[in-house]
Amino acid sequence: MSVLVTGGAGYIGSHVVRLLQERGEDVVVVDDLSNGKPERVGNAVLETFDLSDADATVKLGALMLKHEVDAVIHFAALKQIGESMERPLWYYKANVEGMRHLIGAMQDAGVKTMVFSSSAGTYGQPDVDMITEKTPCQPINPYGQTKLIGEWMLDNAARFGMNSIKLRYFNVAGAGAPELRDTAMMNLVPIVYNRLLAGQDVVINGDDYPTPDGTCVRDYVHVVDLAEAHLVALDRLRGIRSGTAEPLAQTVFNAGNGIGYSVREVIDAISPVIGRTLDPVVGPRREGDPPRLVADASAITEVLGWKASRTLEDMVRSACPPELLAGHRGEKDGDVEQ
Ligand SMILES: NC(=O)c1ccc[n+]([C@@H]2O[C@H](COP(=O)([O-])OP(=O)(O)OC[C@H]3O[C@@H](n4cnc5c(N)ncnc54)[C@H](O)[C@@H]3O)[C@@H](O)[C@H]2O)c1
């Protein structure tokens, strides 16, 4: 038996691949390496192709039979909101076609279990204090739309026996190991570190929002906590631990922390990690940034027994490039000492 992890060479997927391997599972990764790194998958089988290719269903089906796949964790997707607005059909092809091929292959190969990476982007910009799974989904960009469609496709696949859990992620940060760090500059923490590495000012986009310190508030979850949530979901679908693989009444869960941190709080948390006080520059608001997006994560705790446990400090410290860590001695320092 093995687990197929699509997008397993990516940031979050590679953390799940590692946890699966650490508990002795055989893992097969499919990743087109458009944003993944092969060195992240350890000794997993890595097949490099695009899930949205016309022949992907056939390739995936053959792979599932060959490796006796019994469950799929589906991360592979394009994920940049701005890009999705510029090239919506490309996003539909990658994310929706990719999902269609994957579900089709699972149906052909008789694989009925999937954990799916969904997103808080499915909600859009709800004007609520805490977002629950019952908060209406009104995605405001093609990226969020493709994630919601992916959820619907899985719900429809339940008619032919698909047993799925969709995890809606919020802001993911941190790293379980230095080589698995998020290198894409799309989320606040890597953006700050990349600016520091480049010797640039740290920028806050707007400090006049209706929040306690005026900066946007988001729900941040440590990537290792999130990776563990996938294993908990997978085990529930396979009937491990709970003793039942019966379909759940609820299959969509917010995989958040339930705690909102402001942009300024996140930047302040970075200062002790790098050993100097950051003095961010305040720039204009970014278009379309809602003041607050925080998950009510109580359902996943109640139903699946998962709760994020790592702190903001854990996230920013583990995400920090070694050369920025307080006390780090670079080559230059070493030279001086000699
Ligand atoms: N990072 C976040 O904060 C966040 C938040 C919400 C949801 N998500 C979702 O989580 C999943 C993983 O995100 P991530 O941050 O690890 O992104 P990532 O880009 O690091 O990982 C995605 C992986 O999928 C691969 N991939 C993309 N399209 C593919 C395709 N068509 N065929 C085969 N492989 C393909 C990429 O090469 C990459 O390795 C995505 O589905 C994303 O939408 C991420």
TrEMBL record:
Alphabetized InterPro entries for the sequence: Epimerase_deHydtase (IPR001509), NAD(P)-bd_dom_sf (IPR036291), UDP_G4E (IPR005886)
Top-level taxon: Bacteria
Matching Pfam families: Epimerase
Isomerase listed as a keyword: yes
Needed co-factor(s): NAD(+)
UniProt record similarity statement: Belongs to the NAD(P)-dependent epimerase/dehydratase family.
Name of the protein in question: UDP-glucose 4-epimerase
Organism: Brevibacterium samyangense
Lineage, opening ranks: Bacteria, Bacillati, Actinomycetota, Actinomycetes, Micrococcales
